[in-house]
Amino acid sequence: MRALVQRVSSAAVTVEDRRVAAIGSGLLVLLGVTHDDGEADADRLAAKVRALRVFPDAEGRMNEPLGEREILCISQFTLYGDTRRGNRPSFVAAAPPERAEPLYERFCERAGAARGVFGAMMAVELVNDGPVTLLLET
C-alpha cells in the first residue's frame, strides 16, 4: 500500500457536483493498493497515519500527532502508475477494484477517515498546510 499524506487546513471531495465529504484541519490521504496487499497492511498503515507527528507543538516543531483532527481518504490507483518505459503510465501494479476496494474501506475504518467514492471521478480540494507531504509504504 502507498499513502500520499498531506497536512491540510481543510479538504473536500466532490462527486458529480455533490460534496460527499469535507474536513477541517487534519490529513488528506491518497491511498493506493497493490496486488499483494492484505488486511494487515491496511491496519498497519492506518495506525501509522494516525500516529504521524506532523503537527506543530507549542514550540512550532512538527511533534504532535493527529489527535482530534480529521482524516479524508481518497482511493488513488494512480499512485502505482509506472512511467519508467515511456510517457503513458502503466497501472499493472495497481490492484484490481475487487481487491482494492475492501482494503481501502478497511483502511478508512481503522483510520476513522471520511472518504471519497471508490472508483468515482472525484474533484478533490485542499489547502495544504506547510506544505507537509509524506509518502508512506507498507
Summarize the structure.
With 138 residues, the chain is an alpha/beta fold. 20% of the residues lie in helices and 40% in strands.
Please characterize this protein's 3D structure.
There is one protein chain. With 138 residues, the protein is of the alpha/beta class. It is built from 2 helices and 8 strands. It has helices spanning 39-51, 97-111, and strands at residues 2-15, 18-23, 26-32, 55-56, 62-64, 70-75, 114-115, 123-137. The strands form 2 sheets. Strands 1, 2, 3, 6, 7 and 8 form a 6-stranded mixed sheet that branches. It has a two-stranded antiparallel sheet with strand order 4-5. Helix 1 runs parallel beside helix 2 (97-111). The chain is globular. It starts with a strand and ends with a strand. The mean pLDDT is 97.
| Main sheet: strands, sense, barrel | 6 strands, mixed
> Can you give the mean pLDDT?
97
Number of strands: 8
SSE series: EEEHEEEHEE
Q: How is the secondary structure organized here?
A:
Layout: E1 2-15, E2 18-23, E3 26-32, H1 39-51, E4 55-56, E5 62-64, E6 70-75, H2 97-111, E7 114-115, E8 123-137
Helix pairs in contact: 1-2
Task: Please tag this protein with its features.
6-stranded mixed sheet, alpha/beta, 40% strand, two-stranded antiparallel ribbon, 20% helix, 138 residues
